[in-house]
C-alpha cells in the first residue's frame, strides 16, 4: 500500500472522450490505408493535371514572350562559355521560339511537358529548389510545368535536372521520378561548417537562423548550371552565390528566380549589405532580364527574372570583392526564409518564420 501511495494520481478520462479519441485514431488509420491503396491512381490524376497545365502554358502569351527572353539570355551565355562554333549554332537552333498551338506536343494525347526524348547532349545542368507541393498548389504546378518545358526547349535531358524541396510528399516524389528528373531525397547541402550533417533538429528562432546559413550550398564544380528557384527565400540565393564566389564559377551560372534588382529596391542598403552581402556585392556584376508579366500567370512568375554574370562585368568589380569570404549570418534577420528538413514537425518557433516559395500553405 505504501508503494501504491507514492504513485502519482491521474484522473481517468471519461468514456465519451476515450471513445472519441479511438474514433479519431481509427479514422486516421483508414485514411492512411486509403492513401496507400491507390498511389498509382493518385499519381495518374496528378500527371493528368500536369498535362493540362502544360497545354495551357504552351498556348499562353506568357510562354511565347518568355521564350524570347530566355533565348536572348541563353544566347549570350553560350557565347560566354565559348562553345565551339558548330555546337553553338546547333544549340541556338534548339532554342526555337515556335510555341504555336499547332506544336505537336500541345495536341498529342497523353502529352507530358518535355516528355519527348532529348537528342544529343547539352552543355547545361539544371538544379531546382523550392517548387513546393505541386499536387495541391496550382502555382507550384505551373512552375513545375514551366521547368519541364524549359528543359525541353534548352535540350537539357531530365536526368541532368536535380530537384529538391523538403516538403515533397511521397506521391510528388513518385511523380517526379516518373517524369525522369533526379529527386534529391534529402538536402545534401545542409552541412555544418565542421562537415557534420544536420538532421532532425529542434528549432528555436536562433537555431533556425543558423540553419539558414547552411542550405542551398550547391557548387557548380566547373559545369555550366542553371538554377531554377522561383520565389525562394533571399538567404538561399545569397548562400548559392557564397558557394560559387569566383569569377569562373559565377560566369558558368544562370539563376531564374526573384529579381535581384527588386531586392535592391525593397531592402534598405544597410540591410542588404549586412544580411545578404553576396547579393549586394554582385549587383554590378550581373545582367538581369525580367520574365514577362501577364494576367494569367501573375501570381506564378511575378518578380521573376533570369540572371547571368558577364565575365567583363565581374572583372570590373573592385579587386577586394573576391577576397570577401565571410560566412553568412542570418541570426538578426527578421524576414528569414529557409528550407526546413522534412521528417520533423514544425515547432512553435517555425510558425513565426515566413516560408520561401510560392505557396505559403504548403
UniProtKB/TrEMBL annotation:
Residues 123-308 form the SRR1-like domain. Residues 1-26 are annotated as: Disordered. GO terms for cellular component: cytoplasm; nucleus. It comes from the Eukaryota. InterPro entries: SRR1-like (IPR012942), SRR1L (IPR040044). Belongs to the SRR1 family. PANTHER family: SRR1-LIKE PROTEIN. This is SRR1-like protein isoform X1.
